[in-house]
């Protein structure tokens, strides 16, 4: 049983680290604003999985779930507002390519 | 609508679905349901609706972007594969406690009694987000 738990823990840890790296890579590489938001969402998902893992290891799954639910709600609101901002940027500039956005250049 | 962005959004939804299975396996069913319904459902719908509004990037620009990406970040996919290989070789033994199904671990009691300020914060954040979206789209409607 302990061995199964250990295996699940390491599988989830590796998964969370890979999702985090993928999200970071996505934000670094892309020039598209929507894909940057997708990368940010991936980072949040990795953090959610780490929170749940911490609750699983310490045996306090209730608290971990409460924090994860709060994180999910915040994630949705941030993404909804970010997508709204991206759509406004598209309406003004007719592009969401960050290389072509020069209106706010200092 | 761009097909490549659509693929990214579908990939994100699949990631959310897999993540919710993992969260369910980690003895957190309510968080798993939240993840599946909100992240794989609502966020996917938000992304699809925004992708349908935007335009496809021209073919020439796409080729330029691919070249720039390959030139700058050719090392990163190799790093990801190496990290995955290294992590799969790591075997630490940890002492685990099985999560006890006591009142202390009941998420409903924790959320409503212990973390009720979190709920208040969630309501404020939801209202702020709704207000922000309304303001953003109100300007659009007026134009």
Q: Identify the overall geometry of chain B.
A: flat
Task: Tell me the number of helical segments of chain B per DSSP (H or I, 4 or more residues long).
Answer: 6
Helix-strand sequence of chain B: HHHHHH
**How many strands in all of chain B?**
0
Cα radius of gyration of chain B in angstroms: 22 Å
User: What share of the residues of chain A lie within helices?
Assistant: over 70%
* Number of helical regions of chain A: 3
The topology string of helices and strands of chain A comes to HHH
Helix content of chain B: over 70%
Mean pLDDT of chain A: 86
- Counting DSSP E segments of at least 2 residues, the number of strands of chain A comes to 0
**Rg of chain A, alpha carbons:** 18 Å
Q: Low-confidence parts of chain A lasting 5 or more residues at pLDDT below 50? A: none
Biggest interface, chains and residues, is: A-B, 70 and 76 residues
Q: What is the name of the CATH architecture of chain A?
A: Orthogonal Bundle
**Gap from first CA to last CA of chain B:** 22 Å
Q: How is the CATH topology of chain A named? A: Helix Hairpins
What fraction strand of chain A? under 5%
Structural class given helices, strands, pairing of chain B? mainly alpha
Globular, elongated, flat, extended or rod-shaped: what is the shape of chain A?
A: elongated
Q: Largest sheet of chain B, if any?
A: none
């Amino acid at each position: 049983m302990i061995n199964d738990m250990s295996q699940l823990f390491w599988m989830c840890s590796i998964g969370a680290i890979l999702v985090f790296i993928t999200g970071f890579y996505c934000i670094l590489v892309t020039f598209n604003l929507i894909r940057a938001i997708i990368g940010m969402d991936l980072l949040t998902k990795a953090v959610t999985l780490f929170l749940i893992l911490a609750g699983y290891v310490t045996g306090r799954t209730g608290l971990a779930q409460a924090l994860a639910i709060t994180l999910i709600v915040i994630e949705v609101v941030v993404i909804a507002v970010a997508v709204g901002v991206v759509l406004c940027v598209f309406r003004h500039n007719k592009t969401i390519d960050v290389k072509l956005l020069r209106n706010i250049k200092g | 609508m761009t097909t490549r962005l659509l693929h990214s959004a579908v990939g994100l939804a699949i990631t959310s679905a897999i993540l919710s299975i993992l969260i369910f396996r980690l003895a957190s069913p309510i968080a798993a349901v939240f993840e599946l319904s909100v992240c794989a459902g609502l966020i996917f719908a938000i992304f699809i609706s925004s992708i349908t509004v935007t335009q496809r990037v021209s073919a020439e620009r796409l080729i330029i972007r691919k070249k720039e990406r390959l030139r700058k970040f050719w090392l990163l996919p190799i790093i990801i594969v190496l990290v995955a290989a290294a992590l799969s070789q790591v075997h630490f033994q940890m002492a685990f406690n099985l999560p006890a199904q006591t009142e202390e671990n009941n998420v409903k009691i924790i959320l409503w009694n212990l973390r009720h300020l979190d709920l208040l914060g969630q309501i404020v954040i939801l209202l702020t987000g709704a207000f922000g979206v309304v303001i953003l789209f109100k300007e659009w409607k007026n134009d």
